[in-house]
Amino acid sequence: MCLILVGWRARPGLELVVAANRDEAYDRPTAASGWWPEAPGVLAGRDLREGGTWLGVTRGGRLAALTNIRGRGAGVPGARSRGLLVRDFLLSRDKAEGYALRVGAEGDRYPPFNLLLFDGRELLALSNRADGFRRLEAGVWGFSNGVLDEPWPKTVAGTRALRGLLSQRIPEPGDLLALLSDDRPAPDGSLPETGIGLEAERLLSPIFTRTQAYGTRSSTVVLLSTEGSASWTEIQTGPGSKADERVREEFRLEGP
Question: Other CB atoms closer than 10 Å to residue 136's CB: what's the count?
Fold first, then answer.
């Protein structure tokens, strides 16, 4: 996942909105999102290589999502998959703060990551390339492959667009999917320097990314209302995906 945009209590009637693009190698085996047979209360996609996921929600109102971090050093050899952090939180009953403290204590077991945790009451962000966790206040937040709110071009453009939508109305999933489809590259002067060279930085700068072997594999929108309703909309966008290949789920939250 290379972009997560979050509106947290940023619009009356809307508790939480998450709009996210998952960027990944096209040949990494992946299952589209669905309710997990072994955990029927979990709705998420699945990394078929390591068993984790990049974004998920539960009927109880828990949500977790992650991105990788680029240019901040590699993980240790034999590191655990980052997607297990999301999976394990969704399957647990831990409060977000307790889980964040535990992850922070063993963060060096994973490659560099950003992690977003919502337990139905609090929204936290943490990274193993930053100190501690951050309890997010109401507003619009975003992170890509830098730490929270680091001004990467796609983060700046995405948060600006989400803030604009929320200032007008509660957005429809289609509004947010349109935002996530923006494939305009950023100006060279605004690109980060993460050690991969200017051409690669340019290719990876849009909100929606396409390269020969890597790019946006799926776009997902989650809306949690203050009235306890939830919606999940996901489209598959990688090579070979069909235009009508969409997952749509609406359900009532059962409470944390």
Answer: 18
